[in-house]
Automatic annotation (TrEMBL):
Region annotated Disordered, chain positions: 328-408
Extent of Pro residues compositional bias: 340-364, 373-393
Taxon lineage: Bacteria, Bacillati, Actinomycetota, Actinomycetes, Kitasatosporales
InterPro entries: AAA+_ATPase, ABC_transporter-like_ATP-bd, P-loop_NTPase
GO molecular function: ATP binding
Protein's name according to its UniProt entry: ABC transporter ATP-binding protein
Amino acid sequence: MIEAVGLTKRYGAKTAVYNLSFQVRPGTVTGFLGPNGSGKSTTMRMILGLDRPTAGRVTIGGHAFRDLPNAPRQVGALLDAKAVHGGRSARNHLLSLAQLSGIPASRVDEVLGVVGLQEVAKKRSKGFSLGMGQRLGIAAALLGDPQVLLFDEPVNGLDPEGILWVRNLMKMLASEGRTVFVSSHLMSEMALTAEHLIVIGRGQLLADMSVREFIAANSAGFARVRTPHTDPAQREKLTGVLTEAGGHVLPEQDGALRVTGLALPRIADLAHEADVRLWELAPHQASLEEAYMRMTQGAVDYRSTDDQLAGFAAQQGADGVLPGAQAAVPQEAPQQGWYAPPPPQPGVPHPGVPGPAPGAPGPVPLDQNPYARPVPPAQAPAPTPPAAAPATPPSLSKSDDTTPEDAR
């Protein structure tokens, strides 16, 4: 079991992880989620003794990683698939790791077969694709047949067959009673792989619960209702009836209606009484991605903005458009609020989706979120005079005050 208590890590003035406490129990796949820069990789590095915590402690089986005898036989990890000498073959890379840990050479051939790299075992790793590098990193993690396994983005670069293989591998390892801790940004894959979730944001714990509880606590349920598209009058009639009954109705882009505040049987009864035919009446099943976006929307550090040069070529007139090309017509962007449906009303049941667990914190409104940053209005760049050509080429060296990559 992995246990972190009050874990804190600072890099100068930057706090990557702050007062983080959690447990990763054996026998289940535990997902580790969080936005970029939330401290996931830093936490994993502290678990493996690669970074020393500023405060707090983290143990594996009750011992710090550096105190474990022959740690590679007890803990396996994949943090960086590129951490391989490019001049070594896949087999020689694994063989060197095995010799350092007293692992027999026969085990090297076994793990090469497990990850499907037998045919390229004698090829240099510098010619490997990203997916092949991931497989080699997984083989290195499995080399000592450890009871604790940590994987940071293990499916990066893998094709669908490889992603399915990793998913089944994680579940099989957990079913054998091992502790499996997996970090990933692929919500759809994590929903199929993990049973328990640990979610952090800006270095602090946001959630520590099962996948089902996480979705229920961070999503608002609603019903999708659709009337015959050949009769718009019935759609308007149903909207009025549901609104009078206390429901909240919003139109969907595909013509359906999103209804909150009314249970499915009540919606069906109202439609029947109003003599309105229904082509669809279904509860909305929230996804892990939807719940994750709803919880972490206030803890995202990197947000995109509109392109200030969008449509620039079309604004140049006919002379600036290529022959035969048509000027782009600006269109209204679709509403991207699908992951944040209307919040539930107190005391009103929501169709098909259980309500939040008692005592569970609700989402923070954007207008009360201290992390919400207003996007400044677009301003035209001020004209700058042409600069004289430099006498010497500019330096390409990196700045000395860069933030460590592992603080992401």
